[in-house]
Write a structure and sequence with these properties.
By secondary structure, the chain is of the alpha+beta class. It has helices at about 30-35, 55-60; strands at about 10-15, 15-20, 70-75, 80. Helix content is about 15%, strand content about 20%.
């Protein structure tokens, strides 16, 4: 992924889920791109397409992000946010 100039949290939404991405936390473990390449595609802009998989699959892959650069809010109340720095 190219270096991002802003550390602002970005949001990508589809029915039932909002994916958050915090570029400053990303350590490129690539759990996301290997786990769900249809959702996380480094060559596409925007690189996150939350409509390309089920909410449960997205949650499963994001839960494997070791840096907490990725998070989510789901329509059924599940959330994942980064712990305090």
């Amino acid at each position: 992924m190219p270096h991002e100039k802003s550390d602002a949290i970005r949001e990508y939404s589809a029915p039932g889920v909002t994916i958050t991405w915090e570029p400053g936390r990303c350590r490129h473990a690539q759990e996301c791109v290997h786990g769900l390449p249809a959702v996380f595609d480094r060559d596409r802009r925007p690189w996150i397409d939350p409509s390309a998989a089920s909410v449960d699959d997205i949650v499963d892959v994001i839960d494997r992000c070791p840096s907490y650069a990725l998070g989510y809010r789901t329509g059924d109340g599940r959330t994942r946010t980064a712990p305090p720095a």
